[in-house]
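chain below, 63 aa
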Amino acid sequence: MAAPPQLRTLLLAINALLRKRRYHAALSMLKGFRNGAVYGVKIRAPHALVMTFLFRSGRSTCT
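prediction:
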């Protein structure tokens, strides 16, 4: 099943935009933010949750 011509044109335009050197710094920042968010969700959040259950004291300190 082939992609519609409008989608193909859109993908070609996006790829041309991504190849421009002018946007390299902004795209690198965006990629770093995305990678940090993925790392936080996959590794840090579950680790924090486990540590909370393992080392929780008897009473909650929240009022």
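The longest helix spans residues 24-54. The mean pLDDT is 87.
thats it, cya
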